[in-house]
Amino acid sequence: MMKKKTATLSFDYIETVHRLSLAAEFKDKESGAHIKRISYYTQELALELGLSKKFAECIFYAAPMHDVGKVGIPDSILLKSGPLSEDEWKIMRLHPYIGVKILRGSESAVLKMAEEIAYFHHELWDGSGYPLGYEGDKIPMSARIMSIADQYDALRSERPFKKAFDHDKTVEILTKGDKRTSPDHFDPEVLNGFDRVVARFQEIFEIYQTAEEPS
User: Fold this and answer.
1) What is the dihedral of CA 128, 150, 19, 75, to 10 degrees?
2) What are the residues whose beta carbons fall under 8 Å from the beta carbon of 41, sequence distance 6 or more?
3) Better pLDDT: 162 or 128
4) pLDDT at res. 78
5) CATH assignment, 2-207
6) Sign of torsion, CA 110 143 73 99?
7) pLDDT per residue over 145-160, tens digit each?
8) Has this prediction a pTM greater than 0.85?
9) Which residue of 4, 30, 57, 61 shows the fewest CB atoms closer than 10 Å?
């Protein structure tokens, strides 16, 4: 009986976390599918990198909370159809700080990792990211994995200000670079791991086109 009760509580907890993640991005009709895919991308990459099954399970549930801090960003910025101004970018770049305030202080391993990811997933390996300009191993592994997973999904997804790229073009951008993205932005170990599982990323994107589980 105790095991069944514990399992039920665990399921209820995970569902609550998922719904809070949706609440953070509910203005975007694609957000439910996005956070579903992010879970699978990060789990797949963690396992490919030889990280523990416990880590992979934890990141599966933590990753959807990466942008929870966007609840504190004005709609006029979040939903803007064109490029953001310099002042608007300054405001947008506050969302990691907001995310940390929301997630800080929990004893849950999932929420502790979610806090890491929310704070650091926009940091880049070469130190050109934000909010702190961290580089290299100063960035937690969970955030390094999240960085490339989030970039992959963002490039594959249509947005008001951009068209979606196909899988091959997205992989080319991430591994070879373009005007905005450089391979130097990613941990070389993580980038190599990504290169080994790109086919699986493509499958995940195609399967989870909506927030509903495929039948």
Assistant:
1) 60
2) 63, 149, 152, 153, 201, 204
3) 128
4) 83
5) 1.10.3210.10
6) positive
7) 999 999 999 999 887 6
8) yes
9) 4
